[in-house]
Every structure is written in structure tokens, then in C-alpha cells.
Amino acid sequence: MRPDTGRAGVVVAGGRSTRFGDTDKATVRVDGVPMIRRVVDGLAPAVDEIVVNCRRGQRPAFEAALSGLEVRFAEDPILDRGPVAGLRTGLQATTAEYAAVVACDMPFVPTALVDHLFAAARTHTGAVPEIGGQRQPFPAVVHVRAGLTACADAFVHQRGRLCEVVDVLDPVVVPERTVRAYADSAALRNINTRADLYEARVRT
């Protein structure tokens, strides 16, 4: 893949899962499959490469969970700076023109929605779904260089939050009625707690 061509998938997975307990939720199994593997499986058909952002200490467990899949790891140089830092680290690791970005705790994002976001982002800085009247930072597709600039701006000039990255990026917004054609509300929820995991297991 030449620079500024192709599609990447970036999985942001460097958080500490503090609301989940003493287990890294990314490796917890949902219907027998590690959550992070479900995320990668959903992204892979839509992209040319997968980049997984993580802390160095997470990497052995992630490598085991993703055994047999072709992925690259982008380790956070400074820990615990939040999802914007993880997103920036992941985007820095690819030379693709556009990247689909998904959190590691969103195991049901359908490939068809990712493909639609790529199509919507073409010639723009990115595309994000709208749910409940709010623009969602994940899943999204971003122009990689524009995304890196937006992450830097959020850190330097604002409070380093994902919503600020979206504001700076000013992406195409895919309306909820269109999103619903590809995914129900449960498919776009984060699994933050054990209760969320239970609901996800019931769903499957």
C-alpha cells in the first residue's frame, strides 16, 4: 500500500477498563470469541490493514486473542492519556489515506456500516454516524492526516476529548435513519461494565 492510498482499520484498545473490574474487557469472550477479535473481524473485510493501539503490557494477551490474524500493534508512548491519544497513536502507525476507527469494546459494528462510512467520507475529512441526535466519534472513518491534525488540536487548544476531535474534523454526518439501515442501536453500544457484557451475551 502506497502512502495516502488504501484503507486502514484502527482499533483503540489502550484503556484500563476501570468500570469493568480487574479484567481487560478487550479480551473477555462474547459468545466464545474475544471482544477485540470480534472488532477486528468486523473491520477486516472493509480495510487493507489493521492497526491495534494498546499499552505495551496488553500486547501479549492481544496477540493471543488475535492469533492467526494479520494485525500491527501501535503501542502508546505515554500511558493513560485517554482515547484521543490512543487514536493519534493508531493513526500515526498507518500510511493509508483513510482509516476506520473503532473502540475495542464495540464488538458488533457491522462491516456494511464501515463500508458506508468509507463511501460517505470520500473527498471529505471523514464521516461519523449520528445516534440520538449526537455525532458519535466511534465508529467513524477519518482522513488520516486530517485526523492527526484534529487530535493535536484537541490536546493543544482544548481538553483532549473525542467530541472535540469530531468538532475540529468537521466530518460528514451520516443521519440516524441511514445508520439504522446497517445497524441497530445495540450494535453501536460500548461494553463498559459487566452488566453491559451480560446484555451483549443475551443479544448474541
From TrEMBL:
A GO term, aspect molecular function: molybdenum cofactor guanylyltransferase activity
Keyword annotations of the record: Cytoplasm, GTP-binding, Magnesium, Metal-binding, Molybdenum cofactor biosynthesis, Nucleotide-binding, Transferase
Pfam families hit by this protein: NTP_transf_3 (PF12804)
GO cellular component, one term: cytoplasm
Enzyme Commission identifier(s): 2.7.7.77
Spans through the membrane: none
Required co-factors: Mg(2+)
Entry remark concerning the domains of this protein: The N-terminal domain determines nucleotide recognition and specific binding, while the C-terminal domain determines the specific binding to the target protein.
Name the record gives this protein: Probable molybdenum cofactor guanylyltransferase
Originating organism: Halogranum rubrum
